[in-house]
Every structure is written in structure tokens, then in C-alpha cells.
Amino acid sequence: MTIQGNTSRKTTSVALALAAGFCVIASTGCQVSLNGQTLPSPYYLQDDVQYFPSGPEFKLPREAAALKAARAEEKASRR
Q1: 23 in any annotated domain
Q2: Each residue of 45-55: pLDDT tens digit?
Q3: Within a 13 Å sphere around the CA of 54, how many CA atoms are in the beta-carbon half?
Q4: Selected residue with higher pLDDT from 23 and 27
Q5: What whole-number distance in Å separates Cα of residue 2 and Cα of residue 56?
Q6: Residue 3, in any domain of the structure
């Protein structure tokens, strides 16, 4: 083998390895953060959508009732 043939074979194998690495990285579907934006994966249209039904607008009804009862009790004790 000549030195020139060995060098071109190494160059070809390095180029193929880089191309394969690029293809592997480009084909993965993960979220990326770019300039403060979270961008979706290329497969976001095929993702299963999770549905969370809306809950009550006021999330603390028991606490509000307890505060109202405490205020009424305090007001009654002042009289």
C-alpha cells in the first residue's frame, strides 16, 4: 500500500463517520432550546395529546368558607 492510498481511505472513513453522525443527530426527535425558545420535536404532530379537563375557577372554596366563618365568629365575639 502506498501512503497516498492509506490517506484517502482514512479521509473517506472520517467523512462517512461524520455523515453517519450527522444523520443520527438529525433523525432524533427531541425538544431543543434555541435562543430561549423551546422548540418541539419534528414528530410533534404525531404525539399523543393529553387532555386535562378544566377545574373550578376558584380553587380554594374550603379556605374561603373557613375564613368567612372565622370573621363571623370574631365579629360575634366583639359584640
Answers
A1: yes
A2: 787 778 888 88
A3: 3
A4: 23
A5: 79
A6: yes
